Amino acid sequence: MTRLQDLVDKLQLKVKAYKRQSEEAEEQANTHMSRLRKVQHELEEAQERADIAESQVNKMRAKSRDAGKSEKAE
């Protein structure tokens, strides 16, 4: 009977250890997901800024071309 109790105790310790590992893994996963969301948000903002900058460059190029054409016409 003691041998059986020893086995039960060992199994309970293993279960506790696995549960702790599971909780630690879940914490790490939550941390990584939080970082991922932050980086995704930063990427979206950077892409927006790049799009705005590209649009401004295209407008300036168009103005430059138009100014060049009107100078040639004069």
Give the rounded overall mean pLDDT: 94
Q: Unreliable stretches, pLDDT < 50, 5 or more residues?
A: none
Oligomeric assembly: single chain
What structural category arises from helix and sheet content? mainly alpha
Mass-distribution shape:
rod-shaped
Element string (H = helix, E = strand): H
* Helix fraction bin: over 70%
Cα-based radius of gyration, to the nearest Å: 32 Å
Characterise this structure:
It is a single chain. Helix content is 97%, strand content 0%. With 74 residues, the chain is mainly α. The radius of gyration is 32 Å and the shape is rod-shaped. The termini are far apart. The mean pLDDT is 94.
Task: Map the helices and strands.
Layout: H1 2-73
Protein name: Myosin heavy chain, fast skeletal muscle
Organism: Collichthys lucidus (Big head croaker)
Region (Disordered): 42-74
